[in-house]
Amino acid sequence: MVLWFRKNLQNIMLAAIAMLLATSVNVNAEVVAPVVPKGKGEQCVEPTDVMRKNHMEMLKHQRDETMHNGIRTKKHALKECIACHVQEDEKGQVARFGDDGHFCSSCHNYAGVNVDCFQCHADRPQELIGKGHKIKPHHTADFKDKAINKEALQALTEVSK
Amino acid sequence: MKTVNTTDTSKRKFLGGAAAVAGIAIAPGVLLQTVNAKPDNEAVSNKVRWGMLIDTNKCGDGCTDCVTACNTENGLTGFERPETDSQWIRKLTLKDKQTGHVQTLPVMCQHCETAPCVDVCPTGASFKREDGIVLVDKHICIGCRYCMMACPYKARSFVHEDLQDQKDHAPRGKGTVESCTMCVHKVDNGENPACVTACNKEHKAMYFGDLNDANSEISKRLKQYGGKQIRADLGLNPGVRYQGV
Ligand code: SF4
Ligand code: SF4
């Protein structure tokens, strides 16, 4: 037994170090992701990672096309995002922009990125307008303690090849 | 001043195709809608010029159906402050002092061909669509209100206060200027503007259609009976015409 131990000491040490390393790497790589409410539909109009990274570009493109050229396709329209992603919960409550439970805010609060869209645009589907509490359209969310770390940001915005 | 035109003309290359006619037939020969709806993915073109015709002889004295319909359609809720509350359409009363004859008529953005509001806008936010509808792109409006001063028809309003519960088809917000959009969201969908629909229920004083199409009802009426421009002397060639004034 002693002999075996001596013979394998080196291996055991290596294994222990490896385990330690593995744990510390795991701790570093652990990402506390925001809780994003599920959409109504089965599948988004684009792959999730593409949406995470590029939704703002698509929305902006669509916005100019609709505003100036009267293009009314639905695929990248904000109204359709909201119609699918903002729903009543079991209690009949609807989250407003700024609440962690609102689809857009769940990530934007987490990442500390404010947007102005909902000063003008509806943050709920048309049939839910009037429901829910009031919002301060010019609010600045309190992003204290919500700073996102680099790994989390990478994990959220990386687009798979 | 240089006119900022953000409309990408290359988008118009696929306009050759025939526009679908969105006519809902409720019975043979009876059409609910007579306006051409373009496909969703087709850009608006200058082949069309949307316009309105208002017959003031039919406009009801004391009737405000068009104003109510506009407010409801576009979610224009006020703050009980008439001085600053948004107003896209209003009723005017004209009285001939000599004869005592009283007329009322609705006035909204006249969708001028050479729109002064577009000329003066420093950011390009105030613009005219290819089909003649004059709009404010609130994404780039800085709220300077030059356009309000330039408009000879007092057609524009400034949003002074935080808003709640805007309609999803009519985004509006504090710090930007707005005016009648000719219900562009409806027009793009092949429907009449809300005021016209409301007026047609009783007084039938308002017509909407394509001024470029000689066969549209509005063009035929204008050709046969004529139609005045308010302040024609300004040479703005507005898309809204009046009869009986
Ligand atoms: S009526 Fe006034 S707001 Fe409308 S296009 Fe003419 S100048 Fe512009
Ligand atoms: S208020 Fe807005 S739309 Fe009017 S002139 Fe200024 S920037 Fe242009």
Description:
The complex is a heterodimer of chains A (161) and B (245). Residues 20-27 of chain A have low confidence and may be disordered. Chain A has one domain (48-160). Chain A is built from six helices and no strands. Chain A is mainly α and 161 residues long. The longest helix of chain A has 28 residues, at 2-29. Chain A is globular, with a radius of gyration of 23 Å. Chain B folds into two domains: 1-36; 39-243, 2-Layer Sandwich (Alpha-Beta Plaits). Chain B has a three-stranded mixed sheet. A two-stranded antiparallel sheet of chain B has the order 1-2. Chain B has a two-stranded antiparallel ribbon with strand order 4-5. In chain B, α1 (65-74) packs antiparallel against α5. The radius of gyration of chain B is 18 Å and the shape is globular. With 245 residues, chain B is an alpha+beta fold. The two termini of chain B are 34 Å apart. Helix content of chain B is 17%, strand content 18%. Chain B contains six helices and eleven strands. Classes of the chains: A mainly alpha (161), B alpha+beta (245). The structure holds iron/sulfur cluster (SF4) (2 copies). One iron/sulfur cluster is lined by residues 120-121, 123, 125-126, 136, 141-147, 177 of chain B.
Brief overview, please?
The complex is a heterodimer of chains A (161) and B (245). Chain A is mostly helical and 161 residues long.
List keywords for this structure.
heterodimer; A: 161 residues; mainly alpha; 6 helices; B: 245 residues; alpha+beta; Alpha-Beta Plaits; 2 domains; three-stranded mixed β-sheet; two-stranded antiparallel ribbon; 18% strand; disordered N terminus; binds iron/sulfur cluster
